[in-house]
UniProtKB/TrEMBL annotation:
It comes from Novosphingobium lindaniclasticum LE124. Residues 18-67 form the HTH lysR-type domain. Belongs to the LysR transcriptional regulatory family. Keywords: DNA-binding, Transcription, Transcription regulation. This is HTH lysR-type domain-containing protein. The keyword Thylakoid does not apply.
Length: 300
C-alpha cells in the first residue's frame, strides 16, 4: 500500500469513535457505548478531523452537533463499518449452515411462501427459514438477511435475482355480488361498484382501456392500502377489484371469490428472490434457491 492509499484510510479507532459519536449525538454516550472515556472519544474525533483536514462536528461549549461534512462522511462510512462488523462476526462466530434469514413482502409471505414451507421442511428437514416482513429495499451488508423477496424489476442494488413468477392480475367479485349486479361479461362492470388498491389507483383505467372503454375517475373509487384488505372488502360484497391471483387463491379455491370472466390485466411486474452478490454463497441459501426454483413454474 503506497502513502496515498494509507492517507485515504484513517485508523479504525478514529472511525469507530466518530461513528459512535455521530450515531448517538454525544461524545459521552459514545464513550459508554464503546467502552472508552469521553476524553478518548474526543481525541479520536479530533485526530480524525485533523487527518481529513476538515471539522466534522460544530462545537458549542460541551455540545457537539454533526455538521454537513460529518453527515456526508457518516452516510458513506456507516455501511462499510457495518459490513466489516458482519464479516468479522461471521469468522469469529460462523452462521449456522442450516438457517436462512429472509425479508419477505407481507402478502407474499402470508399467501404464497408460508403455505409452502411445510414442503420445504419435508425436502430439507434440517433447514430453518426465518421470515421477517419488509417492504423496503435495504443494504444487505447492513442487515441480517441472506435474501429478500422483491417485486417489480430486477433492480435491487448490489444483488443477483432469481425470477419466481410474473404477476397475474384478475378481476374478482363475490358470488353474491356477481348475481346481484348480473356480472357475466366485462361490460357489466361499467356500472358496478369498483374498489382499488391505493398504490394502483389507475388499475381499472388500464383494464377498461383494454376494451376501448372509459373508466370511472380513479379519484372517486374507494381505495384500500393493502391487497389482502381489498380482498376482504370484495369478499364482503363491497365491489369488484383487480388483484394478483396468488394473493386470493385461498378465497378462489373456497368459492368465496370468483373470477367472473377471463380478462386479466397485463402487468409488467414480477416477483424475484434477491440476494447479495458474493464469492461464497451460504449453503442454506443455495438449498433454498434450488427448492424455490422447483416451486416456481415460471422459472426460465
Amino acid at each position: 500500500m503506497n502513502h496515498d492509499e494509507r492517507r485515504r484510510l484513517p485508523p479504525m479507532s478514529m472511525l469507530h469513535g466518530f461513528e459512535a459519536a455521530a450515531r448517538l449525538g454525544s461524545f459521552s454516550r459514545a464513550a459508554e457505548a464503546i467502552g472508552l472515556t469521553q476524553g478518548a472519544v474526543s481525541r479520536h474525533v479530533a485526530n480524525l478531523e485533523t487527518w481529513l483536514g476538515t471539522p466534522l462536528f460544530d462545537r458549542n461549549g460541551r455540545r457537539v452537533t454533526l455538521n454537513a461534512a460529518g453527515s456526508r462522511f457518516l452516510d458513506e462510512i456507516a455501511p462499510a463499518l457495518a459490513a466489516i462488523r458482519r464479516a468479522t462476526g461471521r469468522l469469529i462466530d460462523p452462521e449456522p449452515e442450516h438457517v436462512i434469514e429472509l425479508a419477505v413482502l407481507p402478502g407474499f409471505g402470508m399467501r404464497w411462501l408460508a403455505p409452502r414451507l411445510p414442503g420445504l421442511s419435508r425436502r430439507h428437514p434440517d433447514l430453518v427459514a426465518n421470515l421477517s416482513a419488509r417492504t423496503d429495499i435495504f443494504d444487505f451488508a447492513a442487515e441480517p438477511f441472506h435474501a429478500a423477496i422483491h417485486v417489480g424489476a430486477p433492480d435491487w442494488p448490489g444483488a443477483d435475482h432469481d425470477l419466481l413468477f410474473h404477476e397475474h392480475v384478475v378481476p374478482v367479485v363475490s358470488p353474491a355480488f356477481r348475481e346481484r349486479h348480473g356480472i357475466a361479461e366485462p361490460r357489466d362492470l361499467l356500472g358496478a361498484p369498483l374498489l382499488v388498491q391505493s398504490a394502483r389507483r389507475d388499475a381499472w383505467t388500464r383494464w377498461f382501456a383494454l376494451f376501448g372503454w372509459d373508466a370511472p375517475d380513479p379519484v372517486t373509487l374507494p381505495s384500500l392500502g393493502h391487497f389482502l384488505m381489498l380482498a376482504q372488502s370484495v369478499k364482503a360484497g363491497g365491489g369488484a377489484a383487480l388483484i394478483p391471483s396468488f394473493l386470493v387463491q385461498p378465497e378462489l379455491d373456497a368459492g368465496d371469490l370468483v373470477v367472473p370472466f377471463d380478462a386479466p390485466l397485463s402487468e409488467d411486474r414480477s416477483y424475484w428472490l434477491a440476494y447479495p452478490r458474493s464469492v461464497r454463497e451460504p449453503a442454506a441459501l443455495s438449498r433454498f434457491r434450488a427448492w424455490l426454483a422447483e416451486e416456481c413454474p415460471f422459472q426460465p
